[in-house]
Amino acid sequence: MKIIFYTGPQCSLCDLADVELQQTSKFSSLEIAKVNIRTSTELYHLYGARIPVLKRADNEKEIGWPFTAADLEEFLQ
């Protein structure tokens, strides 16, 4: 499964989200693409106040911070 991880430079919440993501049992089967929202004006306007955000490529569902490993397990099902 491909996950888009919207993040930004020096984002401490993004670091916390990354730790939660790595603790999910499904982590090994994930393809994670980290996207710096500052590279695009459109992405910055969409996600600037909400990062970190994870988005599934298959169904485009999103989960924003704060989330736990249990929340991620449910999101990835």
Describe this structure in a few short sentences.
InterPro entries: Glutaredoxin-like, Thioredoxin-like_sf. It is built from three helices and four strands.
Notes on the protein architecture:
A 4-stranded mixed beta sheet has the order 2-1-3-4, with no helix packed on it. By secondary structure, it is an alpha+beta fold. The chain has helices at residues 12-22, 41-47, 69-75; strands spanning 2-7, 31-36, 53-56, 62-64. It has one domain (2-75): 3-Layer(aba) Sandwich (Glutaredoxin). It is 32% helix and 25% strand. A hairpin with a 5-residue loop joins β3 and β4. The longest helix has 11 residues, at 12-22. The relative contact order is 0.28.
Structural class: alpha+beta
User: Helicity range of the residues?
Assistant: 25-40%
Distance between the termini: 10 Å
Tell me the domain tally: 1
Radius of gyration: 12 Å
Principal-axis shape equals: globular
Oligomer: single chain
Order of helices and strands: EHEHEEH
Q: Average pLDDT across residues?
A: 93
Organism: Alteromonas marina
Protein name: Thiol-disulfide isomerase
InterPro entries: Glutaredoxin-like, Thioredoxin-like_sf
Pfam family, one: Glrx-like
